[in-house]
Design a protein that fits this description.
mainly alpha, about 10% strand, BlaI_family, transcription, WH-like_DNA-bd_sf, Arc Repressor Mutant, subunit A, DNA-binding, DNA binding, 3-stranded antiparallel beta sheet
């Protein structure tokens, strides 16, 4: 299941806040802030999709994510690799490193991360 772009934006704030009331989420938005009803509708949809839940405190709801940010983005990156790069991580890496204008320093950092992961998997 996917989130819409607007839902993803709300989810980003919720991941950052960990748990939040409607006011906290609205405060996280830059000006001009969306209408309360808009955010309420998005949160309702996200709850229905199983991404968010809440605890009731009287009439107030404290929302919290049910899906970890890393899990959500990992699933989408894997889908991207499968759908656009013939399920080939090396084709994805080749495209990513050649088409994103990474600096030499950034490429060296990526190489270090890959080398560390290789060493970890060898153990």
């Amino acid at each position: 299941m996917r989130l819409s772009k607007a839902e993803e934006q709300v989810m980003q704030y919720l991941w950052k806040l960990d748990k939040a009331f409607m006011k906290d989420i609205l405060d996280a938005f830059p000006d001009p802030k969306p209408a309360t009803t808009t955010v309420a509708t998005l949160l309702k949809r996200m709850t229905d999709k199983g991404f968010v839940d809440y605890k009731l405190y009287g009439k107030s709801r404290e929302y919290y994510p049910l899906v970890k940010k890393t899990d959500y983005f990992s699933k989408h990156v894997n889908g991207l690799i499968k759908n656009f790069f013939n399920d080939s991580a090396s084709q994805f890496a080749s495209f990513f490193t050649s088409e994103t204008n990474l600096s030499t320093t950034e490429l060296e950092e990526l190489k270090k991360i890959v080398d560390q992961q290789i060493q970890k998997q060898k153990k």
